Amino acid sequence: MTVKSKHVRIKGIKDGLVFLLDDKCPFEDLLSELRYKLEHSHQNILAGPIVHVDIKLGERVVTEEDKDAVLDILRGQGNLLIRSVESLPVPGVVDQDALFLMSGMLRSGQVLHHTGNLLFLGDVNPGATITCSGDIYILGALRGMAHAGVEGNEEAIIAASLLAPTQLRIADIISRPPDEWETRESSMDFAYLLNGAMQIDKIHNIVKLRQGLNVFKGV
């Protein structure tokens, strides 16, 4: 079977590969070409040491099953390590409550941006930056910089299993961690804004905060 190379572009970057997937073609055609390239025309990238891969889906409405289908093809290749899966917001399609999942590790100098709410499985090391238009939830250590609500959403929050950032920012409010953070218990905390000032609380109080906001808005 011959598959024309037009829906999948593979680009080399400094620390890995970026798979750019066409967002206009039928999804099944996309999967077929991705599978074909890995099995036939691009076998050379599968030889050698571990290669980190970032997947960019473009402006495409995708379900979790769609994402899994793409990941299953790539995970079948032993040396490809998926670092992120990113899709751009589709005009006219907005899900304010959706929580997008990414995994990996952000090292010094790396920047990860997502539009919407993000659940990141991994550590954000010193010198790394994670930004998001919605909430940021990190199942790991936040030791770098995090900016939630980048488009001005002051109700956004930043939560982490270990909260020890170099800087936190929500909307336009910037807070550098006080010196006592180095000695206080900082596990399972989250940051939020109250009257224009950064506050820190335990993650189990997020529900109370959200309920309070809804009551205030009359929801």
UniProtKB/TrEMBL annotation:
The answer to keyword Ubl conjugation applying to this record is no
- Example GO biological process: cell morphogenesis
Cited SUPFAM superfamilies: Cell-division inhibitor MinC, C-terminal domain (SSF63848)
**Which Pfam family is one of those matched by this entry?**
MinC_C
Using the record's annotation, list all stretches that form the Septum site-determining protein MinC N-terminal domain.
8-85
In this protein, which residues make up the domain named Septum formation inhibitor MinC C-terminal? 103-195
Under InterPro entries, the record lists: CAP/MinC_C, MinC, MinC_C_sf, MinC_N_1, Septum_form_inhib_MinC_C
Q: Which domain of life is it from?
A: Bacteria
Write the record's keywords in alphabetical order, separated by commas. Cell cycle, Cell division, Septation
PANTHER family this protein is in? SEPTUM SITE-DETERMINING PROTEIN MINC
Its family remark reads: Belongs to the MinC family.
Function in brief = Cell division inhibitor that blocks the formation of polar Z ring septums. Rapidly oscillates between the poles of the cell to destabilize FtsZ filaments that have formed before they mature into polar Z rings. Prevents FtsZ polymerization.
Quaternary structure, from the entry: Interacts with MinD and FtsZ.
Q: What is this protein called?
A: Probable septum site-determining protein MinC
Species whose genome carries this gene = Paenibacillus donghaensis
The major lineage groups are: Bacteria, Bacillati, Bacillota, Bacilli, Bacillales
- Name the gene that codes for it: minC
